[in-house]
Amino acid sequence: MASFFLSNEFGLIVGICIFIAIFSWVDANFWSPFNLFVISRSAGVYALIGLSMMAVIATGGLSLAIGAIGVCAAMAFGWAIESAGLHWSASLAVALAVALALGYVNGWLVVRTGIHSFVITLATMSVFFGGMLFLSQGQSFRALPAEITEFGRLKVFSISALFLTAVAVALLLAAFYRFAALGREMLAAGACPEAAELSGVHSGRMFILCHVLSAGLAGIAALLVTARFGAAIPSMAGQLGQDWLMPGFLAPVLGGTLLSGGRVSVPGTVLGAILVTILANGLLRMSIGEFWVQAILGCLLLAAVLGDVMRKRYLAASGRA
Amino acid sequence: METARYAFEARSVSKFFPGVKALSEVSLKLSAGSIHALLGENGAGKSTLIKIVTGVYQPDQGSLFCSGQACRFSGPRDAMAAGIGVVHQERNLIPRFSIAENIFLERNGRHLFRMIDYKALAREARPWLERLGLDLDPALPVSRLTVAKMQMVEIARALALRSRVLLLDEPTASLTPHEAEALFAVLRKLRDEGVSMLFVSHKLEEVEQLCDTVTVLRDGNNVCDARSTESLGRQDFVHLMIGRTEQVVTRRDREQEDVPPFLELKSVSSALGHRDISLAVRPGEIVGLYGLVGAGRSELAKVIIGRYPVTAGEIRVDQAPVKIRSVAQAIHRHGIGYVSEDRKHEGLILDHSVLENAGITVWRRLANCLGLVGDRSIRALVEPHIRKLEVRTPSLHQKVGLLSGGNQQKISVAKWLSAGVKLLIIDEPTVGIDIKSKAYLHELIHELADKGTAVLLISSDMPEMISLADRIVVMNAYRVQGELANTGEYAKVSAGIMNLIHD
Fold first, then answer.
1. Which of A119, A240, B260, B456 is 20 to 30 A from B298, alpha carbon to alpha carbon?
2. Which residues of B touch A181 (CB under 8 A)?
3. What's the CA gap between B416 and B448, in Å, rounded?
4. Which residues does residue B121 pair with via DSSP β-bridges, in sequence order?
5. Residue of A nearest to B399 (CA)
6. H helices of B323-457, where?
7. Closest CA of chain A from B369, distance in Å
């Protein structure tokens, strides 16, 4: 039990409570059903973006392309419905297949070339996004079926269905890392590829699968955004999908995922996403400019990364003792 | 002052590491104008002593003297400033910088913003090169030189730092015999000019040929210090290095049944450079693989388990020719496991728990049709082995990195016991492990073989080899030098092994 109070998850819960206390004191409408819906809607998307990044950080690498992959998946969804005339459920499958394929490309390139994933995904981010713009000619798909838009507005006790979806995915993912032989092998390969390889784990294959998993989660995140907007829009994740990077890194790093790989925390990442959402939401409602919010989030990321370094030093020091 | 006779002296130096006494009251005396050899088996404490001399480690007891003055090094820079120059086994030059820049690297670093006067640099570098008989343009980038020439540049750099003591760690390891001769000529010339040199080498004939005095270490103790080499021959060196008459070797005679080998290598060559390797291991047999560091033994193990490809020859498992393409295949299809010598990077995942480390080899086997495997089923399989090996850990969820070396090693063995392998390749099982765990692991290896597991034991620890192995295959330079039956007679077998290596 003592270890729980020292964990990142507990720290995040405390942090979330503090922010909630501050914002509900400053802002009378913080607890309004509408604001709860807005927060939970964003938190759901941020949580999935964070999990998507987490799945690659598990390899000790990162992916700058999650935003681009997400947008590609969302645009594929719109295309499948509007241009190919598929049912929305079949279109979901098409969208996810596109995401998984792009993730495979990333993973394959990283493993085959041995080049750091930063460079590979920086390049593929542009390639994927550029390819998407070329194919879609920058046009949005706005004539989506009512089911999709309704899902975006659906709420259960003021909580957005997007958030509930994210929680369900997170539960599955947590079980995957905990109980699936594959999930365990991914973490082993991420922690120490050579040791894992010499224990019979195909480390390279695991790295590719980590990128595929990450891309799948990015695809789901993008589909949720599509439901929220009621449209698949090329600029939904910003230029080149870069708007996803800050929440993508913040959530897992706050949640205690080791940047050097091999250890992930699914609940930590979800809590991290909730904290980031509440912070951003509260600051925006206090009419603090958008760029200040970005700057504060940047500081938070720095603090979280420094915390990661300190933790590693502490681990090394206690390992020697 | 009595010590003034020595350019450098280490007096009764001891160094402790957690659980191990690496050096115990060791002395080293280097006279000016002489070449001094430092000898010892792997693990005798040579590298620890070198690190103390070069300021990387600080001695826990004892003191160091430079030209009779007591001195303390708090880091390698202090040692350099005190006139101790080092030429490491691996080359330590910046490839794209010129010879002159490399020679004066230390000095250039001192003024961050001053422009470098390349002409003056080249002018100053030339005399140092000439002193070593090198006719090279100092402006030439180091990357264009041969390994032997690079080494000369390193010696020049050490001399340019006004070193009075020059430490050469395995200087001939990557030289041809001809280049080695040229190096020796230079070293003799430097000796005549009054430089004191410490020559660390495994090659006894070089020591015999070159060195004036010798210090031998064994198990972290001085066997002799600054003894003249005049009356010593190669056999004497061997005897000094390994001849522990007090060594009690407890060897067990195992009934050798005439069963076909479990693993057989026939003229195997590998992508790593092995040539024409043949050996066989029978079930219930411990075959030792002895050789010096760099003989290609661990690399051979990795070829056998499919980490690196075989380029020629044949591997047979259970008499059937096989191609092992991955470690996963070796483990899951053929039942071959490998306990790495490098526990921290290859053997264990230090950041993960005891249970995860000991279970990694069985996850796939235990997984149900959905690919799921719970802690309980892993625990059921792994825990008996952990308990039997008496691993001392607060819980199965403890991080492996927090356990002692001995306990870590037990876990890296336990994971193969859980996997139920039929052949276990064990690489340096007791390096850096306390005596009690060492005895325990030896007992365990015997027991494994008694139960019918084929064991291929890689060890540089001669007593360990002689107390465990049934047969000993000797390797050198990625080839098999020969094989001898282990009779358990320490002196005879160790001399036989040494002769095979140095032939």
1. B260
2. 363-364, 366-367, 371-373
3. 11
4. none
5. A319
6. 327-332, 354-359, 363-366, 375-388, 405-419, 435-450
7. 11
How many domains in chain B?
A: 1
Q: What average pLDDT does chain B have?
A: 83
Q: B128-155 burial by CB neighbour count: b if 16+ within 10 A, else e?
A: bbebbebebebeeebeebeebbbbbbbb
How far is it, in rounded angstroms, from Cα A305 to Cα A112? Answer: 29
Answer whether residue B168 is part of any domain: yes
Q: Could you give the domains of chain A?
A: 32-306 (1.10.3470)
Contact present, B223 and B239 (Cβ < 8 Å): no
Residue B86 forms part of a structural domain: yes
Place of tokens 């360990």: B464
- pLDDT tens for each residue of A37-70: 988 999 999 999 999 999 999 999 999 999 999 9
Q: B85: domain CATH number?
A: 3.40.50.300
Q: Is the ipTM of this complex over 0.85?
A: no
Distance of CA B446 to the CA centre of its chain: 25
Q: Is the pTM of this model over 0.90?
A: no
For residue B423, give the 3-state DSSP assignment: strand
CA distance A169 to chain B (A): 17
Give the residue among B363, B464, B370 at the shortest CA–CA distance from B419.
B363
Q: What are the CB-based long-range contacts (under 8 Å, 24+) for B104-111?
A: B104/B157, B104/B160, B105/B157, B106/B80, B106/B161
> Tens of pLDDT along B164-188?
888 988 887 777 777 888 888 888 9
Does residue B307 belong to any structural domain of this protein? no
Strands B286-290 and B454-458: parallel
Q: Which of B305, B364, B401 sits opposite A181 (nearest CB)?
A: B364
Instruction: Say if residue A86 is exposed, middle or buried (CB neighbours under 10 Å; 0-12, 13-18, 19+).
Output: middle
Q: At what angle do helices B405-419 and B435-450 cross, to 10 degrees?
A: 10
User: Which range of residues forms the domain containing residue B67?
Assistant: 2-242
A128-132, A257-261, B236-240, B416-420: range with lowest mean pLDDT: B236-240
Interface of B with A (CB under 8 A): 302, 305, 307, 326-328, 330-332, 338, 340, 345-352, 356, 360-361, 363-364, 366-367, 370-374, 399, 401-402, 415
Give the pairing type, strands A159-160 and A155-156. Answer: antiparallel
**Residues of chain A positioned with their CB less than 8 A from the CB of B367:** 180-181
- pLDDT tens figures, A228-256: 988 888 888 888 888 899 889 999 988 88
Q: Is residue B118 part of a domain?
A: yes
Sequence-separated (6 or more) residues with CB below 8 Å from residue A14? none
Tokens of A147: 């089911």
Residue B353, C-beta contacts closer than 8 angstroms, at least 6 positions apart: B396, B397, B398, B399, B400
Q: Residue B197: name the closest of B181, B211, B209 by CA.
A: B211
Report chain A's terminal Cα–Cα distance, integer Å: 23
Burial of B4 per CB tally in 10 Å (0-12, 13-18, 19+):
exposed
The closest CB to that of A262, out of B351, B361, B402, belongs to: B351
The verdict on a CB contact (< 8 Å) between B372 and A180 is: yes
Q: Determine how β-strand B69-71 pairs with β-strand B61-66.
A: antiparallel
Closest residue of chain A to B346, computed from CA coordinates: A195
The phi, psi pair for A307, rounded to 5°, reads: -60, -40
Q: Chain A contacts of B377, Cβ < 8 Å?
A: none
Answer whether A198 sits within 8 Å of B327, measured CB to CB: yes
Residue A211 pLDDT grade (very low, low, confident, very high; cuts 50, 70, 90):
very high
Strands B479-485 and B471-476 come out as antiparallel
Q: Assess whether pLDDT exceeds 70 at residue A221.
A: yes
